[in-house]
Design goal:
By secondary structure, this protein is of the alpha/beta class. It has ten helices and 15 strands. The strands form three sheets. Strands 1, 2, 3, 4, 5 and 11 form a six-stranded mixed sheet that branches.
Length: 304
């Protein structure tokens, strides 16, 4: 039985994403779920060999990329993303039985969740103080422990902990989406589907034009970049890593050529190629006609 870690404790959106991956057939057998205290902790369980994979959040349509996940993927032995799923995210305000919304003075919230409901909180709980929790499910546990009056959490956490919902479907932005990825030890990438995503981390020479030259490797080959982000390396002021997502697969000729070109001049970490849950851009151009033309040239065919 595969052991799969997830950003816990039980009742988080990440556990729901793991359940969705299970139901979609991402695993060959039923899995044993292993809760981890953070995204980094879940990924370290893969590196230590304690689990076979991990599901972690990587991007929110409201708050952008999840920096804790990106940093953990960039540092340490290489891991690889092999699948993804998306969840539409809204929150439930949970409290102990007998608590009314007007009674709430201390609200537990995971920072990413708190940022997605800040306008709702300002409107309905203008005088509340925020208690920082380590995850959405942990916020519910903090209510049970008496650390807070209510929590920004999930309905699943409320059901499992016996809490009541003071409000449901709470979100500042309707139809907010969070993307989650399944990460494993490095392996052969899933076969290309024609609707794939490839992700890399770049560390470039600190010299004029290095970033532009890196982008040009994609642009000249017609590769659609769908995410460009920088994060500090934490080794000194002004030093950054660049996280790039593009449409396409490492088995696509254009993507493979771009990766080879980047490898000549930069430190590149391949995070994976995998089927995208939703279409995000234009697939790279096919090279079949050009490849056939080259074959004919090598055969000495005239008038091509």
């Amino acid at each position: 039985m595969p052991r799969i870690a997830y950003f816990g404790p039980t009742g988080t959106f990440t556990e729901m994403a793991l359940a969705k991956l299970e139901s979609s057939g991402a695993f060959d057998a039923p899995v044993e779920r292993v809760a981890a205290q953070s995204q980094g902790a879940a990924l370290e369980l893969i590196r230590s060999g304690d689990v076979d994979g991990a599901v972690v959040p990587i991007e929110s349509s409201v708050e952008g990329s999840i920096s804790a996940t990106l940093d953990s993927l960039a540092i340490g032995p290489r891991l690889q993303i092999v699948a993804e799923t998306e969840l539409e995210v809204s929150f439930t305000i949970l409290a102990r039985t007998g608590t009314e919304l007007a009674d709430v003075r201390l609200l537990a919230a995971y920072p990413v969740a708190g940022a997605q409901v800040r306008m709702w909180v300002a409107r309905h709980l203008p005088n509340v103080e925020i208690y920082t929790s380590t995850s959405n499910a942990a916020a519910a546990e903090d209510v049970v422990a008496g650390h807070a009056d209510a929590a920004v959490s999930t309905a699943l956490a409320g059901e499992r902990l016996g809490l009541v919902a003071l409000a449901s479907g709470v979100a500042d932005v309707e139809h907010a989406i969070t993307r989650f990825v399944l990460v494993t030890q490095p392996r052969v990438a899933p076969a290309p589907t024609g609707a794939d995503r490839t992700s890399i981390v770049l560390e470039l020479l600190n010299e004029p034009g290095s970033l532009m030259r890196a982008f040009a490797e994609f642009a000249t080959r017609g590769i659609d970049l769908t995410r460009i982000e920088s994060r500090p390396t934490r080794t000194g002021m002004g030093t950054y890593r660049f996280y790039l997502d593009c449409v396409g697969h490492i088995d696509d000729t254009a993507v493979a050529e771009a990766l080879k070109a980047l490898h000549r001049t930069a430190r590149i970490r391949f995070l994976g190629s995998w089927p995208a849950t939703s279409a995000t851009g234009t697939p790279p151009p096919s090279d079949e006609a050009a490849a056939e033309w080259l074959i004919q040239l090598r055969k000495g065919v005239a008038d091509l």
